[in-house]
Specification:
Shape: globular
Oligomer: single chain
Strand order of the largest sheet: 1-10-9-6-2-3-5
Structural class: alpha/beta
Number of strands: 17
């Protein structure tokens, strides 16, 4: 007999064509996957068999590899009987390159476990063109001689690819050279400091090779993957989404965090998948969904609209459906905070992961907080130097050169400047793509971002004294890849909070930025806040936390606790503040692969879009609005 709980779980997932496991955050996903792999290794070690793994790269599996290393060091997980085959590599690609998957795997896994060198197999990006076909054949042969793949760990690309099996790859494809899809190259652009530096080809294990494995696990995290996950899981198999081929595998599973699972029916509209418990939050979601679906204001919804949209159970659970609609409408009205309802005369810290997230994501709110006479510190958590083009450095050096006389710099001082300037120009002239900048160049790029940040908040009525450049150590690698959050990062944030004793803190809640800085900053603030609240703030209560979004995504209407209306004039000031970030204007180094708009355009479109969505629900008409989540336990 099937239990009610099991039956409900089956019903919610019945639209899913492959088993899906959903966890709260990426850390839990990584932990579960790592321990599943460890279980397979231990079982086969006990039986005296080798474990043959297919391994992937990128930021998604980093937590898995970190946990496997921990299990090896502290729990004795033995990798001596493990044989590995990596899925893919760029071509051509030197093994020592910063972007090489050879280098990635050694830095993040192989150098820290006891897998024998002879049992590590990775695609070779250094082959000559004449050698590629034979190498691909040999790779397939080596997999067969190892006994076949026991388990393959995958991540999914935004185009739905697995490995470098781009859209159009066949079900029986084997290890081969491929042309990389435009989306794949755009996604890789940040690692290569520009799409023009991304190789156009790659080597990849084929779909057929992957599906021959005894078990296949696919991981995905973040809202940016939610749409493609839905297509891979709920739509029929198609070669345009090669991850959908996992539907045909007898032992495959997909591991997701809440963000990546957000597009699945059971998460987005669970009432369409199964009977749900109609508490008020769920009812609110359904009513907002129905209003948007029918393009009908919430107060105008009637019982027939619910019955015609498969929401009979909501009407049965709340027979007075008109009153329920009005209560949801009133709830939304109360979430609209005008300037008079916002903090006034309080201590505020706005944590900005990059030197422009403050004005991009909550420039309207910041404008109002300034006019409400709050004591504000904008804490810029990283210097953003890797996002500055070399041409900007050259331009500023030329500017200083032209102003030497006006600045009263002459003689020996001027000669020393010109000599140093020439050294920097010589370095930039010979610099290779993605090469780490010399220290002076990193400092100049940081100063460019700092000066832009100050200019941005000056538009809104703040000054240099309100900017705090805390420059967390995790970011200071000179590379796109950053270090893990450490105690020094947390200490710097904690010191600032103890100094300012804030009543309110604003934190970036859009965790899908392409380079992961937002998520790392969030984690650092979370750890610092836990210590701050535990140790006592000195004023008797923890600060109120406001989560903002905007650079990469926006809060959905049902998620937001606060909407702040923005007038046309306020939006103009916000955009002017964004414009002050000249190094990110017109063409940013890391715009994100999924959105070709400039950041000011994204901010304008998202804010006006939020206002329009509220208006369609029946709320007052605003020019624009920013959304926030408050009272959130970090």
């Amino acid at each position: 007999m099937i239990s009610p709980r099991a039956s409900e779980s089956w019903a919610l997932s019945r639209r899913e064509r492959v088993p899906v496991h959903i966890f709260e955050d990426p850390g839990q996903v990584a932990h579960e996957v790592a321990h599943h792999i460890a279980k397979v290794i231990r079982h086969r070690n006990t039986e005296g068999w080798r474990t043959v793994l297919g391994l992937t790269t990128g930021s998604t599996p980093l937590g898995v590899y970190k946990e496997l290393i921990r299990l090896h060091r502290h729990d004795g997980l033995d990798f001596s009987g493990v044989v590995t085959f990596n899925l893919n590599e760029y071509y051509p690609m030197e093994r020592s390159s910063l972007q090489s998957y050879h280098r990635f795997m050694r830095e993040h896994l192989f150098d820290h476990i006891n897998v024998p060198e002879s049992q590590i197999h990775m695609p070779n990006g250094e082959l000559s063109a004449a050698e590629v076909d034979n190498w691909c054949t040999d790779y397939e042969t080596a997999i067969g001689e190892a006994g076949g793949l026991d388990l393959v760990l995958l991540r999914i690309g935004r185009s739905g690819h697995i490995g470098f099996n781009e859209p159009g790859s066949g079900r029986r494809a084997r290890t081969r050279a491929v042309i990389l899809d435009e989306i794949t190259r755009k996604d890789a652009a940040s690692s290569f400091f520009g799409e023009e530096n991304v190789p156009r080809r790659g080597l990849t294990m084929g779909v057929g090779t992957i599906l021959d494995a005894r078990e296949v696990l696919l991981m995905a995290t973040g809202e940016g993957k939610s749409n493609i996950i839905r297509r891979a899981v709920e739509e029929p198999v198609c070669d345009e989404v090669t991850a959908s081929y996992l539907q045909d595998h007898p032992s495959s599973a997909i591991y997701l965090d809440k963000g990546a699972a957000g597009g699945l029916t059971r998460e987005q509209t669970p009432w369409l998948a199964a009977n749900v418990e109609w508490d008020l939050p769920m009812a609110k979601r359904a009513i907002i969904w129905l209003s948007e679906k029918l393009n009908k204001a919430i107060p105008r919804l009637e019982a027939a609209d619910f019955h015609n949209s498969h929401l009979h159970s909501l009407v049965y659970a709340h027979p007075q459906i008109d009153e329920l609609c009005l209560s949801v409408f009133e709830d939304l009205l109360q979430r609209v905070y005008y300037r008079a309802q916002l903090p006034a005369g309080k201590q505020v810290i706005l944590f900005s992961p990059h030197p422009d997230d403050d004005v991009i994501s909550m420039g309207g709110m910041l404008d109002k907080l300034v006019r409400n006479d709050n004591e504000i510190i904008v804490a810029y958590m990283t210097n953003g130097s890797v996002a500055v083009f070399d041409a900007d450095v050259t331009r500023y050096l030329d500017f200083v050169e032209m102003c030497l006389e006006d600045l009263g710099i002459s003689g020996r001082a001027a000669a020393e400047y010109r000599a140093r300037r020439q050294e920097i120009l010589d370095f930039l002239a010979t610099k290779q793509p993605a090469q780490v900048d010399m220290g002076e160049v990193q400092h100049i790029k940081a100063s460019i971002r700092y000066s832009e940040a100050v200019a941005g908040i000056e538009v809104l009525g703040l000054g240099r004294e309100n900017a705090r450049f805390i420059d967390l150590p995790f970011y200071q690698t000179g590379r796109v890849g950053k270090k893990p959050i450490g105690s020094d990062d947390v200490r710097i944030i904690l010191d600032l909070m103890e100094e300012r004793q804030p009543d309110h803190i604003f934190v970036a809640g859009d965790l899908s930025d392409p380079h992961g800085t937002h998520r790392k900053c969030y984690v650092a603030i979370q750890q610092a806040l836990e210590r701050y609240n535990a140790e006592g703030s000195g004023i008797g209560k923890p600060p109120k936390v406001w989560l903002y979004r905007g650079a990469w995504q926006e809060w959905e209407i049902h998620q937001a606790d606060v909407f702040t209306p923005i007038s046309k004039a306020e939006m103009a000031r916000k955009i002017e503040a964004i414009f002050k970030h000249e190094s990110q204007k017109d063409r940013a180094m890391f715009p994100g692969a999924h959105d070709d708009r400039e950041f000011w355009q994204r901010a304008h479109d998202r804010n006006t879009g939020t206002a329009a969505a509220l208006n369609r629900l029946g709320l007052p008409e605003f020019y624009a609005a920013e959304a926030f989540v408050t009272g959130y336990s970090m």
